[in-house]
Amino acid sequence: MLRSSLLPASKSKMLLGFDALLGLGLHRVLQATPRGSTLVFARTRASCSEIAQELCRRGYVADALHGDLNQAARERVLRRLRSGELGLVIATDVAARG
Within the chain, what is the greatest distance between any pair of CA atoms? Predict the structure, then answer.
């Protein structure tokens, strides 16, 4: 299990690479995997938003985190993730850079 620097170790459950899961069907993997706070990496900014919107339509509490968001919006996503209000973040490498 990989740990994220965005969350305290006790709250960070897993990091998933979207490209590795694409063929398996992200929705199916999320249904079958016990999880807490989850960070899924996507290749592009547009795909982050599209994936987050689709997951929201399927009943997940998800949001996107990418470079097109202003700093206040990025901080809001991270605050929601840390507080437990948000369980799933779809991100580009902006999250890996901190």
Answer: 34
**Helix, strand, or coil (residue 28):** helix
Mean pLDDT of the chain: 75
Contact 91, 83 (CB under 8 A): no
DSSP reduced 3-state for 3: coil
> DSSP string spanning 48-90?
HHHHHHHHHHTT--EEEE-TTS-HHHHHHHHHHHHHTS--EEE
Convert the pLDDT of each residue in 3-26 to its tens digit. 444 444 444 444 555 444 453 477
Q: What is the pTM of this model?
A: 0.69
